[in-house]
Specification:
44% helix; two-stranded antiparallel ribbon; 219 residues; 7-stranded mixed beta sheet; 20% strand; 7 helices; alpha/beta
């Protein structure tokens, strides 16, 4: 009970701190036509992004309502609480804990017309390698996948498996939407893997294009 209270207070303060922090940044959006295309169609959308970009993505999309997949680990408790403070509904699950149950919950959200956000490379990596969850969800629901990423002129990266990054105050941020990615319904086996690889190529192309704006190959 004490831990939950502490997590709630910390996440509330962090959410407001991020609002102040990122408000100092100059943001340029690329691929807004893809976002508009998704806003104008009738199906719920699967937003997909790399793990390194998670914190700023949550902030950037804070005015949207969506269910987001968050790791079921203890560290994920803080991310889930932060997501809630930024207007998202956290569905808990990871590869080794509640993974299939979380996937079913997200599919139900999509079928109800609720947008979903998912980390492409999962909670444990490897980094910049797409896992199959988004492909499965899209195949079962017909929802399109909307890739997104960001790059910043100045940022701090943590010594984590994915080098989680945060844009620094007063930096310039390029937020990039990619072309929507669709898959046929009821995929199985080899077809899932084929579309997973195609999505991974598209995600990494978008990632490299974003960071090339600052003459970098990666963050």
């Amino acid at each position: 009970m004490i831990k939950q209270g502490l997590i709630g207070v910390v996440s509330f303060l962090v959410a407001w701190f991020l609002r102040i922090w990122f408000a100092t940044c100059r943001i340029t959006v690329h691929g807004s036509e893809f976002r508009t295309m998704m806003d104008e169609q009738s199906k719920a959308v699967i937003a997909i992004f790399w793990h390194y970009s998670l914190v700023y993505v949550f902030y950037h999309l804070r005015t949207d309502s969506a269910a987001v997949l968050v790791s079921a680990s203890d560290d994920g408790d803080y991310i889930a609480a932060l997501a809630k403070n930024l207007n998202f509904n956290a569905v808990r699950g990871s590869r080794n804990r509640r993974g299939m149950r979380a996937l079913k919950e997200l599919i139900d959200c999509l079928k109800r017309g609720e947008h979903v956000g998912i980390v492409a490379d999962g909670s444990q990596g490897p980094p910049l390698v797409v896992q199959a969850g988004a492909i499965l969800m899209a195949s079962r629901t017909g929802s399109p996948i909307l890739p997104m990423t960001w790059a910043a002129s100045h940022y701090f990266s943590f010594r984590s498996w994915d080098r989680t990054a945060l844009p620094l105050p007063f930096s310039r941020i390029h937020f990039c939407y990619g072309e929507p990615f669709t898959v046929p319904t009821d995929l199985n086996g080899d077809d899932i893997e084929r579309y997973r690889k195609e999505l991974e190529i598209q995600m990494n192309d978008l990632y490299h294009q974003a960071w090339s704006l600052y003459d970098k190959e990666e963050h």
